[in-house]
Amino acid sequence: MKRNILFIDPQGGCSMRVNIGLGYIASSLKNNKNCNFRILDFNLIKEPYEKILKEIANSQTIDGVGVTINIGSMHAIPDLLKKIKMYFPKARVFIGGPHVTLLYKKLFAAFPGYFDFAVVGETENTISSIIENLHLKDELASLPGVVLKDDLDKVHQGDMVANLDELDFPAYERFESVRRNNNAMGYYQILTSRGCPYNCTYCAGPKISGKKWRYRSPENVVAEIEFAFKKHQTNNLEIIDDNFPLKEDRMMTILDTILKKDIKMRFRFANGIRADKLNEGNVKVMKKAGLFEVSLGIETADPDLFLSLKKGETFDKIERAVEVLQKFDIKIGGSFIVGLPGATLERDMKSIKFANKSGFSWRQMAWFYFIPYPFTEAHDIFRKEIHNEEVIDQSYQRSAFTAQQIETENYPLEERIIVRSIASRIPPIHPGFGKWRLLKLFLKMELTILKHRDKNLGFIRFHMDMTNRIMRFLKLWLTGQVHPKAYL
């Protein structure tokens, strides 16, 4: 029996990327003759999702709807799931993605009746069986990673793909946005490895993709690059691995092959890369192969706080990597976390000063609010400090770019907002604050900037930034207009 399936990537997290997880699901299903599917990636489709869902509901019967969820899209999930149930009342609705793998129990409790089952872990090997058994409860329950609402007490282990070379390349051509653009893509996203062997206290990555580092062969990686550039009319590559340079000889083989084949490309590491794996030798080759932009996973520039994160690298490695990247004229950005366990306003201001001193590109910077993800050491530390599980649960409802509810005695919420606003060069915003409280918060922010005056900013730059902040805040305050992504 042929199934008509919709896969949906909700809007969220300021992301303008295709969802690589859905890309792999598409490649796993594209040769399945019993499955007719569409992928609606609402981060890149401009029309309102309700309009598109209504048009589909009026034109065909839908048997199943799969929704991928990450923390950046949580704001959109309640209304989206309601609309799906309204327009496709007979369809089986299921959810998956990193947020589901970490928090499926809480999602069942938060959205009772909104979806029928959840899928945790990797789905390339199981998605065909899931589609074929959509309405068969016992068969679904026997599949790795499938979670039913009456079976939440069981420990659910998702499937892990052992040999990544066996997977077909992501079928991005099945995405609605890519299809509408005649398969052209501005940037092609590639994932060459999965898993992480490190023990960073704040990161839930090992819970999502495993502690074991699984990697694709150099031949397989280069073959996808050649395929992608031909099929999707681009030479821009975005490598989104957490640990691309972990095995240096593998990385160098990939780069050498690209150079020998004379593949003309530009590539960047937008997801963050470990500084301790970069050196003058491999950066020189990366530059020659087309590297133009790097985001470093830094998290904090406070020495004691950095050491407490157990990243397995020392801060001097980050400083050395910055010097090497600057030598080869590569744009540098970094990811930082505001409000880590033990952080204070003074400690987090050190991160801002380090970013300014290092000449980081503002557009390549990411300033996240700390979120105590479950199954992490930081979660356990923070839980003892805050004694409020409800506040922790609220932090899972909005993205790490959004003003949270989390605060501690040594680091109030307003101070966290001030630090991130200074770092991101945006007016202080919070969906729960009124106009006069925001005005008071803005004045506090300006006093904080003066108190912690950054000597790395020259006189002209300092006052230009101040003028820009004042103009942007007045526009926000007087009109009440906030860019939609400000609260995502």
Determine the number of helices (DSSP H or I, runs of at least 4 residues): 19
**How far is the N terminus from the C terminus?**
40 Å
Low-confidence stretches: 483-488
What integer is the average pLDDT?
90
Secondary-structure class: alpha/beta
Proportion of residues in helical segments? 40-55%
Strand content: 5-15%
Please tell me how large the radius of gyration is. 23 Å
Number of strands: 14
Q: How would you characterize the largest beta sheet?
A: 6 strands, mixed
Oligomeric state of the chains?
single chain
Topology diagram in text:
Layout: E1 3-9, H1 20-29, E2 35-41, H2 49-59, E3 64-68, H3 77-87, E4 92-96, H4 98-110, E5 117-119, H5 127-132, H6 137-141, E6 146-148, H7 176-180, E7 188-190, E8 193-194, H8 205-209, E9 214-215, H9 218-231, E10 236-239, H10 248-260, E11 266-273, H11 280-289, E12 291-299, H12 303-308, H13 315-327, E13 331-338, H14 345-357, E14 366-369, H15 377-386, H16 389-395, H17 413-424, H18 435-451, H19 459-479
Parallel strand pairs: 1-2, 1-3, 3-4, 4-5, 7-10, 10-11, 11-12, 12-13, 13-14
Antiparallel strand pairs: 5-6, 8-9
Helix pairs in contact: 2-3, 9-10, 10-11, 14-17, 17-18
